[in-house]
Amino acid sequence: ILLVSSDPQRLLPTVRSRCQEVPIPAADARVAATWLKAQGIAAANAVLSFAAGAPLTALEQAEHGESRGILVEMLSTPGFDPVRGAEKLLGVAPPDLVIWVQKWVYDLMRVRSGGAPRYHPGESGQLAGLARRSDPIRLTRLARGIADARALALHPLNPKLFVEDLLMQYRNLSG
């Protein structure tokens, strides 16, 4: 019997005591990128960064590249229109969209703190410009609001209004 867990410390002690731990290291980034290219993914390194180095997740997320590009362009543009933006993103499942915005805001917070972006290394210039204009307190509140939205994303009553609200929260970061 195999028991797989990404967080073994959360297993009951009685279960852990009866298991032999075999840690599985993350895939090498070069090997994963080569594999993704062989699967037909053109921007393998960017997709792999967005998937935090997980090749199977990157392969799964690659089909949403165009929608993610639209979102990144929108989030990079101060004063964008959240209503029009929500219309462009109607085909994206709200839980996915929340995670995408959450990753963008995480990178924005990292850059604001002097670090490098984890999920969007190709957009470090846009993130740096936005980070300079971002108030850290508002940024933290936004991150908390997005975390709250993640709980509601699985069953929003009106997906378009949900996405509009999420985008308005982000747009209000600078104002």
Topology, pairings included?
Elements: H1 13-16, H2 29-38, H3 44-50, H4 55-61, H5 65-76, H6 82-88, H7 94-112, H8 124-133, H9 136-152, H10 159-171
Helix pairs in contact: 3-4, 5-7, 6-10, 7-8, 7-9, 7-10
Structure, explained:
The protein is mainly α and 175 residues long. It has ten helices and no strands. It has helices at residues 13-16, 29-38, 44-50, 55-61, 65-76, 82-88, 94-112, 124-133, 136-152, 159-171. Helix 7 (94-112) crosses helix 8 (124-133) and helix 7 (94-112) packs parallel to helix 10. The longest helix is centred in the middle third of the chain and has 19 residues, at 94-112. The chain is globular. The N and C termini lie far apart (55 Å). The relative contact order is 0.11. The model has no long low-confidence stretch (mean pLDDT 90).
In short, what is this structure?
The chain has 175 residues and is an all-alpha fold. Helix content is 61%, strand content 0%.
